[in-house]
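Journal club prep, notes for RB
We'll compare a predicted complex against what the paper describes. Inputs for the flavin-adenine dinucleotide case:
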Amino acid sequence: MTDISVIGGGLAGSEAAWQIAQNGFNVRLYEMRPTQPTGAHLSGDLAELVCSNSLGSNLPDRASGVLKNELRKLNSLLLTCAEETALPAGAALAVDREKFAKRVTEKLEAHPKIQIVREEVKEIPSTPAIVASGPLTSDALSNSIANLSGENHLFFFDAIAPIVHADSINMQVAFRASRHDKGALDEGDYINCPLNKAEYYQFVEALQTAERIELRAFEESINSGVKAGHFFEGCLPVEIIAGRGVDSLAFGPMRPIGLTDPRTGRWPYAVVQLRQDNLVGSLYNLVGFQTNLKFPEQKRVLRMIPGLENAEFERYGQMHRNTFIASPKLLRPTLQHITRDDLFFAGQITGVEGYMGNIATGLLAGRNLARLLKKQTPHTLPPETMLGALCHYITHASLKDFQPMKANFGILPNLYLDKKIGKREKGLAYAERAAKTLDAYLTENE
Ligand SMILES: Cc1cc2nc3c(=O)[nH]c(=O)nc-3n(C[C@H](O)[C@H](O)[C@H](O)COP(=O)(O)OP(=O)(O)OC[C@H]3O[C@@H](n4cnc5c(N)ncnc54)[C@H](O)[C@@H]3O)c2cc1C
């Protein structure tokens, strides 16, 4: 009997364990919660969604929709559980997070070939294994991965934007509009807080000088900007952007382009945009305002924004750890480690971002481990498929600039479509090619 371990009962690990068991192998799924918490998860359930309850768009012409279609073809357990526990959310697949996690937990607990072990794994096993321990991998296991991977093991931080109560926003000052009046279709209906030049410069100075949460030694060099590349550029804390130059924010998350203030008929000098955060519209998040300032400082500085002078905060901004390995150097597109055929990585730790991408890599790693044990060649999915493209990206990207990646059309091989073709048609063309390619690949290889 082969001793198979999956480390981490999150999105990737739960899907991986299921796929291995469905292929006829006994598998031990190790999850350290609830005895050892991660700091972000709240329960002991498997597949807990730590933040948003949305698994992204279900539309066939969107990248996330394409990935979902592939997961349907590949019999993903977690996608089925998500569809069974879905909430009304327009074109998105949003779930009741508790029901979703409970459904996944029950399914795995009931599977005769899966044994769930509530224990922290401290060392990478020498027997066949999948490491799916996520962005908050425990320290002991991180060390073991670092020992295996040398200095190529990377750390990086995500930052969360603050959320305010809608009824605490001063709508005498703030105004509703989408950029260039595009309406609610793509961008949603934003609340905009306008700043004139003097207000903007005062605000930037306050951001630059406000007290930040103390970071540990290895984070400080990153925070000082020395190794700013370790931040995801699309997710830089506002105080870091402000520190790069007084007008950086006005050209970044605070750019006023296309936002006409109805009271002046002009674009303000700078704007803070707020986006609806919950279905009833009682909460709004500050778009692009992820921050690592101390909570009382966030309250003081953000209340300097016109329209937010009495803002009530539902949640303050935060930085959180995101551990991922140097996949371009360490992984193959089959998700196998370069040094060991029977060691796979899956989920966020590979540098794939987004709930669906994490589920998808778990599925592929699980299936590939089972194929290996059956003496079949593990799948390298074609890059025309969204899952194949994600695996290709993380294993072929330039190591120097390697940043985690979400499913998106930009990572698929170009289709060279007529320039006049609309966004939706383009999306559908890529989706159709992905579906056909996957069908043909599976017919030939399964
Ligand atoms: C605060 C926060 C907010 C986020 N918000 C979003 C969001 O809104 N949308 C989004 O798409 N992504 C978000 N992410 C990223 C998110 O974590 C992933 O999308 C997804 O949860 C990753 O799936 P995973 O299976 O790789 O990791 P996880 O779902 O985190 O699962 C890993 C599991 O491994 C366990 N574990 C860790 N170390 C060990 C060990 N040594 N032994 C045993 N078990 C271990 C953990 O307890 C955990 O249950 C967020 C991440 C964090 C930290």
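Talking point for the session: Confidence is low (pLDDT under 50) at residues 183-188, 217-229.
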